[in-house]
Queue: 2 jobs
Job 1
Amino acid sequence: MKHIKETVESVEKLLNKLKIDYKRHDNIVKLTTKIIPRVDGKGHLRRYSYDYYIGTGQWRSIYSDGTYNETYYKSSGIEDFLTRFFKDDMKHINKKINPSRKGDFAEYYAVTWLWDNGYEVFQNSGCSGPVDMIAMKEDNVTLIDVKTFCKRSDRNGNTDISSTRTKKQKELGVKVLGFEPDSRELRFIEHIA
């Protein structure tokens, strides 16, 4: 496991500076988001809880019933983690997100959104290929490519979200799951043919 140059003290100092509530036990920080203005699969506004492991960048989500997701995910440090999941608290840190990280940001939100909607999720371990993740719900398997919405206005001033699938994605029946970074909303994009 690769260690990150951060200490318990540096993480606590940043969390206190940002006024983010947390509980710490040894090198684990438990963080809970403010209520996020999006509705989960059960129709409730909700908070998200995570365990962040200081010095490793690893984190995992905590379900609303208090059980833990068995999968651990990786960030490049506490600021990277907070930028993904505590966006409102990080606004005043004027740090532009690296464009290559925007896709990671969208994919992490996609995973939690899919879990909330009853899916089991398996992520692509590489950074290439026609599929970002595979989601299973009951006996249905869905191949998913996650895209961050890029809004464009049409002649009437209405915003449209443009997303195209590759020939290979069309052959495989890949569905595009769109992520709107400002509202953190996700939805499947309907494709014609």
Job 2
Amino acid sequence: MVVKYEYYDEAKDIEFKTNQVETLSAQTFTVGTTSPNITQPITSAKFYLMRDPADNLENVFCAIKAVDGGGEPTGESLSSGTLPGVEVSGDPEWGWAEIGMTPYILQPSTQYAAVVNWSGGSCSIGGHFNSPLYPEGSFSTSSDSGASWSSTSAIDLLFEIWGNKNTLYSRYVSGDETYAGVIGRDTDGISGINPVVDRLNSISSVDNLITGSLVSGTSVLSFPGSTLPNCFILEQRNAAPADERRLWIKV
């Protein structure tokens, strides 16, 4: 299930038009500001755009990046995507343009930058400068492909970050094919774990395993040597039997 995560979708009251691929627009955003403050496996980003039909707009590009100490985009792209220009609404119609993004999991309470530019023609991107502004981010521009940035907290771009629904559920892990049951009753907390790792590594559909909320007094173990993207976290329960392990899986 795909859901809308972080967003700012006030009515457009300002716009910016460029026709140079080296001119970048960026909006910083902080996970948990207008969305649940949880890990967010993103699939797409939307921006409010309008192209000039007289121009040959080729592609619209988006990159999600980390931010530096000054709140500006920095480093390599954490996630990126491209949208063919013909899929952008043509003048005089504005519309939300959805750009499919490569997989990445945004982290709670973390600030990122969504960087947008385009090639082959002119395009306009919509923003908002009247109250209410987006409280945990700002709008930035770069005219030199991101070598330097100029930002303002008085304007925000309209944006939406979409991704797979992040639902936590718990199952006890065992050797059967349903992975329901207890790993083992090993008081040292080690025996019985590696066979489960081997079985989980053979399941390509289980592609994201994340930490659940652990109650006070529990201990956390991680599976060693996993080939899946994220570490597996086991919860050792205080309730009898004390050596049960619980695996939290994102679905």
